[in-house]
Amino acid sequence: MRLAKARQLAGVSRAVRAMATANTTPTTGLPPPNAERFGTADVCDVHHPENVDVMTTRSVHVAAANYFKDFGGRRRFCGAVSTILCFENNPLVRAALEESGRGRVLVVDGGASARCALLGDNLAEMAAANGWAGIIINGMVRDSEDIAKMDIGVKAIGTHPLKSSKRDKGERDVPVSFANVTFNPGDFVYADGDGVVVASRELEL
């Protein structure tokens, strides 16, 4: 009786070890990246395997921690980068979001101005309808409670109720740098609640 029980327990133990082995990567013993989730942690595990002692690699660059806040209804998003450089004015933001997004992410460098918003609910709604995956803004948004209900990713540094000016257009599809990373047109960006990761190409897990 005891022998049979011991054999049964041994069989269960082997099964548990086999399942654990099947659900870990062979080199690290950690759970494998989740390709369906495609979170920034998964991206870093595969494309930035070095630990914190190596902060920059050839494959990916990680934005400064807690630089952005989430405002959109979609917390996790990714896509090819299109950029805008502007300061306290948003005509190019509107012009860009009027285009077909084709799953892209609009990255707007507003110089971190905290004096007005570069995005409101009307533009965010337009972006969602036109197929943009998300918008990342080095600046402010407004109508944040309404944007939170929309199926689009929106990251920015804060909120401000005042709208921006229309005094000049700014620049479109130029390199922009903020949050300790540079976004180039055509780069791929991956964003979720953990942060933002930038790569020079579309990544696979």
Automatic annotation (TrEMBL):
<dbReference type="InterPro" id="IPR005493">
    <property type="entry name" value="RraA/RraA-like"/>
</dbReference>
<keyword id="KW-0479">Metal-binding</keyword>
<dbReference type="GO" id="GO:0051252">
    <property type="term" value="P:regulation of RNA metabolic process"/>
</dbReference>
<comment type="subunit">
    <text>Homotrimer.</text>
</comment>
<dbReference type="InterPro" id="IPR010203">
    <property type="entry name" value="RraA"/>
</dbReference>
<dbReference type="GO" id="GO:0046872">
    <property type="term" value="F:metal ion binding"/>
</dbReference>
<dbReference type="Pfam" id="PF03737">
    <property type="entry name" value="RraA-like"/>
</dbReference>
<feature type="binding site">
    <location>
        <position position="142"/>
    </location>
    <ligand>
        <name>substrate</name>
    </ligand>
</feature>
<dbReference type="InterPro" id="IPR036704">
    <property type="entry name" value="RraA/RraA-like_sf"/>
</dbReference>
<comment type="function">
    <text>Catalyzes the aldol cleavage of 4-hydroxy-4-methyl-2-oxoglutarate (HMG) into 2 molecules of pyruvate. Also contains a secondary oxaloacetate (OAA) decarboxylase activity due to the common pyruvate enolate transition state formed following C-C bond cleavage in the retro-aldol and decarboxylation reactions.</text>
</comment>
<comment type="similarity">
    <text>Belongs to the class II aldolase/RraA-like family.</text>
</comment>
<dbReference type="GO" id="GO:0008428">
    <property type="term" value="F:ribonuclease inhibitor activity"/>
</dbReference>
<keyword id="KW-0460">Magnesium</keyword>
<feature type="binding site">
    <location>
        <begin position="120"/>
        <end position="123"/>
    </location>
    <ligand>
        <name>substrate</name>
    </ligand>
</feature>
<feature type="binding site">
    <location>
        <position position="143"/>
    </location>
    <ligand>
        <name>Mg(2+)</name>
    </ligand>
</feature>
<dbReference type="GO" id="GO:0047443">
    <property type="term" value="F:4-hydroxy-4-methyl-2-oxoglutarate aldolase activity"/>
</dbReference>
<keyword id="KW-0456">Lyase</keyword>
<dbReference type="GO" id="GO:0008948">
    <property type="term" value="F:oxaloacetate decarboxylase activity"/>
</dbReference>
<protein>
    <recommendedName>
        <fullName>4-hydroxy-4-methyl-2-oxoglutarate aldolase</fullName>
        <ecNumber>4.1.1.112</ecNumber>
        <ecNumber>4.1.3.17</ecNumber>
    </recommendedName>
</protein>
